[in-house]
Amino acid sequence: MYSWDYSQLASPNEFGWSLGVTPLSNLSVIVSAWVAYFVVVMGCRNFMKSRPPMSLRMITAAHNLILCVWSALMCAYAIIDFYSRWKSRGFGECFCTSDESSLKGRLIYVTYIYYLSKYYELFDTVILALKKKPIIFLHWYHHAIVILMVWSWLEDANMYAR
């Protein structure tokens, strides 16, 4: 269905986002994820309607630990790249650049890993539904829109890198 190139993920220093080539880069993947997210969460809520809330203490703890470690690694990686960029190009280049070569490599790779983490974070809502916790609109909206927002950062960098 998709012709993704997983080999580009092997080298963070050479990474470049490419629409339709980088895994999960197709906009249709985001729309499919939104539909699946809604259907699964509504299905969980319907399934739990006549059942007591699930505890899920160990699953929640493991999920949160994975998110913490994942976030810490992304943060450390971004700080290292930020520092390296500051030393080699100056402070201003860390926030706004016209150098197309800086739109590929480690920082874009970390942004891509952040993008992937947004899909994993959809599981938060499934946990809430199984625990019979309220799920407010802002929660739904946040999880849905952040995937598109990070995708747009990557696609914007890709457009300037061409």
From TrEMBL:
Q: Its membrane topology, per UniProt?
A: Multi-pass membrane protein
Q: Which GO terms describe its biological process?
A: fatty acid elongation, monounsaturated fatty acid; fatty acid elongation, polyunsaturated fatty acid; fatty acid elongation, saturated fatty acid; sphingolipid biosynthetic process; very long-chain fatty acid biosynthetic process
Q: Which GO terms describe its cellular component?
A: endoplasmic reticulum membrane
User: What subcellular compartments does it reside in?
Assistant: Membrane
* Catalysed transformations (reactions): an acyl-CoA + malonyl-CoA + H(+) = a 3-oxoacyl-CoA + CO2 + CoA; a very-long-chain acyl-CoA + malonyl-CoA + H(+) = a very-long-chain 3-oxoacyl-CoA + CO2 + CoA
Q: Which domain of life does this protein belong to?
A: Eukaryota
Q: What class of enzyme is it?
A: transferase
InterPro entries, from UniProt?
ELO_CS (IPR030457), ELO_fam (IPR002076)
Q: Per UniProt, which keywords does this protein have?
A: Fatty acid biosynthesis, Fatty acid metabolism, Lipid biosynthesis, Lipid metabolism, Membrane, Transferase, Transmembrane, Transmembrane helix
* MF annotations from Gene Ontology: fatty acid elongase activity
* Parts of the chain that traverse the membrane: 20-40, 61-80, 135-154
EC number(s): the record gives 2.3.1.-
Belongs to which family? Belongs to the ELO family.
Any idea what this protein is called?
Elongation of fatty acids protein
Q: Which organism is it from?
A: Paraglomus occultum
Q: What is the lineage of its organism?
A: Eukaryota, Fungi, Fungi incertae sedis, Mucoromycota, Glomeromycotina
